[in-house]
Amino acid sequence: MTGFVGKSGDESETERLAALFARAPFEEAGWDRALKTLASMTGSSRAQLLALGDRHTAFNWVTDGDQIFLSEFEAIGGYRPDVNYRVAATRPPLELSWEVHYAAARAVSTNEAYLDYVRRHEAEFGVQMVLSQRPGVMFGLAALHGGSDGATTEVQREVFRRIGPTVLDAIRLQDAIEHQGAALLQGSLESISSAAILLDAVGKVCGMTSAAQALLGRSTLQVRGGALHAVRHDIDFLLQSRIAAALDGSIIGPADLWMRTEDTLILLDVRTLPRHDWTFGFSPRAIVTLRTPLAPNLFPARRLAEAMKLTGAEAEVVALLTQGHSRKTVAQMRGVSVQTVVAQLRTIFQKCGVNREAELVAIARTVIEMASR
Question: Do both 63 and 120 map to the same domain?
Fold first, then answer.
């Protein structure tokens, strides 16, 4: 590379490594290539880039790390400082921690399960750096040394120290790219008037449509500390369980959760979004959609009320019937008794000049269809 003429070999190699990280957000397998080069330059068995949340691991990229390595990390709670002495030994952003700091943390508390884990996977020693830290998530870079690698040297730690700011810049670039994708997804959901809330890999709200915002309130849902919570404790417990399952991809089948309030009934549906390789978790990882039985019917109900000379309540009953709901279901959705719905239908039949529900529904569907043209 002609740009490195006149520079020492170490400087040239470090600049080459910096260039790999700078291109990583834009190249296929770019992050893997850069991390493997970092591992080679620091004499490490593996290099690692990860993000740790309060309750989740947003991502954990380890070069040449198999699925067992990653799943065991989650199983023993490797993101917790009382388990992982590396987390306990973290220092302020862009400052190094290495074996001397690990030893100090282990002297205070040693988790035998984690110690056994790192020894079996040749990752007991090494050097690390917190790249950035913000509420709820920490981004870190590490070089993992096993017994055969030995402890890190000052030269290896200097490579780490010099490359840290470049890696942080690359993370910020990928952050911008992934957030742009989240904004595009939110815009698409807005265009179809979907009430949806997007969650990132650590369960923080990273996008919300205006329709979903309108359903938040003192008796339904709130965003606290960046996370979505149901106001009722029993519902919130179920909601958090579903969110956790969606984030780790273990949701199987429907994830519906009904939430009844004094004013309405809301159906919460929590789903895992498709995942991509080499994502930082900034992009949406799960989606919570909110649906109310009556909200989608407000437009046709208004049209029915105008065309058929019905009251607002009567029009809502007819709108729900046109969707195929039974009288019992209509009563449940509206929070009234079946007898009330039957009494309303008698009045509606008289106003519309029909004798049967099927006739009423046929007329109503025609009115809705005409109004939608």
Answer: yes
